[in-house]
Write a structure and sequence with these properties.
By secondary structure, the chain is α/β, with parallel strands linked by helices. About 55% of the residues lie in helices and about 5% in strands. Strand 4 (about 40-45) and strand 5 (about 50-55) form a beta hairpin.
Length: about 375
């Protein structure tokens, strides 16, 4: 859709609108027009009327939520998803989170051995408590100096443990917590609402706390708790490429199953990331994964092949990256680090900083792959 902007110089707002899929127009007859209001604030005019918003955050939310999500989704030819699909998505997030938390931030060889041990029947009994491996390795180093066996004195985590392990086996982290908060915010608002989601995250941050919280999320939620709007909260770390926001985006895809390639589906993913991680790559990744989840669920409902359905949806929705070429190149490159990185760079030319992040993602596996 086209949007006419007559509201003064606001590069950040214009950038967010473009990231949400709006085509910014300087003239003609755009679908939506944003203008400065004589009494203060911004006036948003569309076919159904106009509305005055007091802040730029309210303006961005109204444009990207009320106007986009109000569009009718196409009817489904295959009915509706079963409850199992929704439950499976949420439970899958929690199980992957629990399994991977035992080796978070460990190197690739360590994660490979760990996941190999989990593959045989009954292997999930070998999952480790969060940060247990770090505790074991630290203790082993100390015991070596003291001439003791490596595991001498090691005590597994328990629910009441207040030491270095902190949490029991089966513990989930912020990935599951924030996915739950996103789903709850959608239920509370009756749709995706960036303000509702922000409120849920701030409440979690200020009460029970966010488990295993990353530095970007922590800085942003501190700022939001102090009164910053969702539009400006992530200014605390605007260029950070750590991307905890992609771990929680599943519910955005579930919401968009009827129309995975709609602008609203893409914009919701962008906005859900912007709350805590506003770097463009973070927002694109969140939106793309949300579209992929929506397309996979749509394929299941309509009885189509999910792989081409997902790739077609990404090709239609993403204006920046050729995901079909990128994923094909990575699959052909095999498991070795350097060919895979080279393959990605061949189809996604980015800055040196991005290349460093890609390399780090391979070397320091944030979550084990099972």
């Amino acid at each position: 859709m086209e949007l006419g902007w007559n509201a003064g110089d606001n590069p950040k707002a214009l950038k967010l609108l473009e990231e949400c899929g709006w085509k910014i127009s300087a003239g003609g007859s755009p679908d939506v027009t944003v203008s400065g209001h004589a009494g203060g604030g911004w006036e948003v005019a569309a076919a159904g009327g106009s509305k005055v918003c007091g802040t730029i955050a309210e303006t961005m939310a109204y444009v990207n939520e009320d106007l986009l999500q109000g569009q009718a989704a196409p009817p489904s030819t295959g009915g509706v998803p079963d409850l199992d699909s929704f439950e499976g998505c949420m439970v899958g997030i929690a199980v992957g989170d629990m399994v991977g938390l035992g080796v978070e931030n460990f190197d690739k060889p360590t994660c490979t051995v760990y996941t190999s041990d989990l593959r045989p029947e009954g292997g999930l009994t070998k999952t480790m408590g969060p940060w247990e491996l770090a505790a074991k390795q630290g203790l082993a180093a100390k015991n070596k100096e003291d001439g003791k066996p490596a595991d001498d004195g090691f005590v597994p985590a328990t629910p009441t443990d207040k030491g270095s392990l902190r949490f029991p086996y089966g513990q989930i982290s912020d990935d599951t917590q924030c996915s739950r908060e996103l789903a709850d915010s959608i239920i509370a608002a009756g749709r995706f609402s960036v303000q509702s989601f922000t409120d849920k995250l701030v409440e979690l941050h200020s009460t029970v706390g966010v488990i295993g919280q990353g530095p970007t999320s922590r800085a942003t939620l501190d700022s939001l708790q102090e009164g910053a709007s969702w539009f400006e909260g992530s200014d605390a770390k605007p260029d950070a490429l750590t991307n905890g926001s992609i771990m929680r985006v599943g519910p955005i895809g579930l919401l968009a199953w009827r129309d995975p390639t709609s602008q609203a589906a893409w914009a919701n993913g962008v906005l859900s990331s912007h709350v805590t991680h506003q770097a463009p790559l973070c927002k694109e990744a969140c939106a793309a994964l949300g579209v992929a989840v929506a397309a996979a669920l749509n394929a299941k409902v309509n009885g189509t092949d999910p792989v081409p359905t997902v790739l077609d949806a990404l090709e239609h929705s993403c204006p920046y990256t050729d995901y079909r070429a990128m994923l094909s190149a990575m699959l052909e490159a095999g498991p070795e680090l350097q060919p895979a990185v080279d393959a990605m760079h061949a189809v996604v030319p980015q800055s040196d900083l991005f290349k460093t992040q890609v390399r780090a993602a391979y070397l320091l596996s944030n979550e084990s792959i099972v």
